[in-house]
Amino acid sequence: MDLTVVGVRFKKAGKIYYFDPGDLPLTMGEGVIVETARGVEYGDVVAGPLQVNEDEVVAPLKKVIRKAIGEDYQQLAANKEKESRAFQVGLEKIAVHKLPMKLVGVEKTFDGNKIIFYFTAEGRIDFRELVKDLAAVFRTRIELRQIGVRDEAKMVGGLGCCGRELCCATWLSDFASVSIRMAKEQNLSLNPTKISGICGRLMCCLKYENESYEHAKEEFPDIGSWINTPEDGEGKVVGINIFKKHVSVELKESKIIKDYPRDEIIYKEAQAKMCKGHRKECPRQSNEETV
User: What is the pLDDT at residue 227?
Assistant: First the structure.
């Protein structure tokens, strides 16, 4: 069963949540007031209205309360001012209690019922006394939420080594799993300073082209495998260049390393794999192989 929904985002580059628009004629870019698990919130419509399968929606699907009006935007502006003050007070109170934590950001819920303090720390922090002090100052519910270094980068923002704004702070909604194997697949330097983002973790962009590299490498022999060159006899594969479609080969007799076009080398297993990938007859297979 398909449902009509709109995608709503509460933070820049935040996750998208689905809501039932009801009879409201909503379009992308409009502000809306919705009810969430932590109370009434303001969000921006970033998708829809669109039809999605019922299985794709987290139940129960809540309705959009109304479109945002002038008073709602005034409330947002007032909350921003209070968040700035709360941040300064939070820094002062952390210093007073001498807690080993770094305050990253402060968020006040739209309805004003709670203030959330985001922080990073090496381990667990006993902040019970800090919460009491903050509650006494603001006279509302206080939540301290510990976040990781990736979330800190997403919240604070900055420039990556490419010179552009961080992906996580501008458009990347979810953090994907990134491994050192992806850097190896792309023949990148394994120097941590060159493949790590400002958060200190492996750069998210290592994943963007990884699938293309994996697919391209399927048409090449494995490193360390033995092949026959067109003119220089047998050799061992010591490197590949997927862009030039060349294979670097260490010749068995002379130990010289030479480059050959991928399609000119003869390697039974590799050619069989290539032909299978292309789903066509391989012209380089010997009579014995084709029997």
Answer: 87
pTM of the predicted structure, to 2 decimals: 0.74
Whether residue 75 has pLDDT greater than 80: yes
Give which of 28, 25, 21 is closest to 63, Cα–Cα.
21
Distances (CA, A) of 36 to 47, 109, 115, 146, 236: 18, 11, 16, 21, 61
pLDDT grade for 271, boundaries at 50, 70 and 90: very low
3-state secondary structure of 14: coil
User: What HEC string does 256-288 produce?
Assistant: CEEEEEHHHCECHHHHHHHHHHHCCCCCCCCHH
**Dmax of the chain from CA atoms?**
86
Contacts of range 124-127, beta carbons closer than 8 Å, 24 or more positions apart: 125/99, 125/100, 125/101, 127/97, 127/99, 127/101
Q: Which two tokens stand for residue 158?
A: 């900055």
Alpha-carbon gap, residue 36 to 9, rounded angstroms: 12
- Using alpha carbons only, what angle is made at residue 287 by residues 281 and 291, rounded to the nearest 5 degrees? 75
The residues near 255 (Cβ < 8 Å, ≥ 6 apart) are none
- Residue 60 and residue 37 in contact, taking contact as beta carbons nearer than 8 Å: no
Q: Return the H-helix or E-strand segment holding 34.
A: strand 31-36
Token pair 């479109």 is found at 67
Cis check for the bond before 261: say yes or no (omega within 30 of 0): no
Query: Could you write out the DSSP letters of every residue in 161-213?
Result: TTSSB-HHHHT--SPPP--HHHHHHTT----HHHHB-TTSSBPGGGGTTHHHH
* Strand 141-146 versus strand 226-228 pairing type: unpaired
